[in-house]
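User: Can you model how nicotinamide-adenine-dinucleotide sits in this protein?
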Amino acid sequence: MEQGTKTAIVTGGARGIGQAISRLLALSQYRVAIADLQEEEAQRLARELPGEHLGLRTDVTSFASVHSMVQRVLQEWGTIDLLVNCAGWTRIAPFQETDDAYWRRVIEINYLGVLNTTKAVLGPMMEQKGGCIINITSDAARVGSPGEAVYAGAKAAVVAFSKSLAREVVSHNIRVNCVSPGLIETPLVEELRENEKGKRLVEKMIKRIPMKRPGTPEEVALTVLFLASSAASYITGQVISVNGGMHMVD
Ligand SMILES: NC(=O)c1ccc[n+]([C@@H]2O[C@H](COP(=O)([O-])OP(=O)(O)OC[C@H]3O[C@@H](n4cnc5c(N)ncnc54)[C@H](O)[C@@H]3O)[C@@H](O)[C@H]2O)c1
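Assistant: Here's the modeled complex, given as structure tokens:
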């Protein structure tokens, strides 16, 4: 396929895993809308990448913000072939030490954000009779993770939502899948290391990984590219872990 003939939205696309996904899609056949709270970084990346891309300030927790981002993409490019929900956030703390403001923030970014973007793109995808949605969840959702109980719950909600939606929209030629990273070396993990509990958790996790190293954002991006491609045309409602063998889930 010719470069620039497909369009993608990547939330959280300015940094970490989302940035690697934006880069790889731009080098493949996609025009990429990098939808992130960090507007300057998103715009800088959009300018830096080869081809025609957009850096758009977007807060996934606000439907109005997401809706106007999607409208802008449609205005510029007319279609949305791929949505990658990658925006996410957590901090390490035992559940008993967290409060409802923290719970709400975690659920709003990690789960409601996915509902907002999905709602905004589904109409256009149905009209164009096809599309692909890839949600970045976490192995914490599949096997649990101490210090990340609320985040694990929000990411598990993303998995259950994705499977249900996959069944609902399959007749519209829309596939919905999840990519579930284990430990991936990104600024988020750097921030987790800033407190003692987080640092200990990260070190403990590395020891448990059969490959004895964290993954790279590029390794997650390659799995996203595979799921978005025609090589994955018979795959929907699935969760693929990218975790160096840390968890081996049926
Ligand atoms: N790094 C890991 O080990 C790991 C493991 C499992 C899952 N994940 C998931 O992968 C995804 C990316 O993680 P990362 O490590 O690259 O994180 P990161 O913090 O490095 O990057 C996250 C990006 O999301 C953006 N973002 C945050 N809140 C937003 C909002 N409300 N609206 C729009 N954008 C927002 C940030 O500005 C940032 O650019 C997240 O969903 C995370 O939960 C990461």
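A couple of observations from the model: The radius of gyration is 17 Å. Residues 11-12, 14-18, 36-38, 58-61, 86-89, 109, 113, 136, 138, 181, 183-184, 186-189 surround nicotinamide-adenine-dinucleotide (CB under 6 Å).
User: Helpful, thanks.
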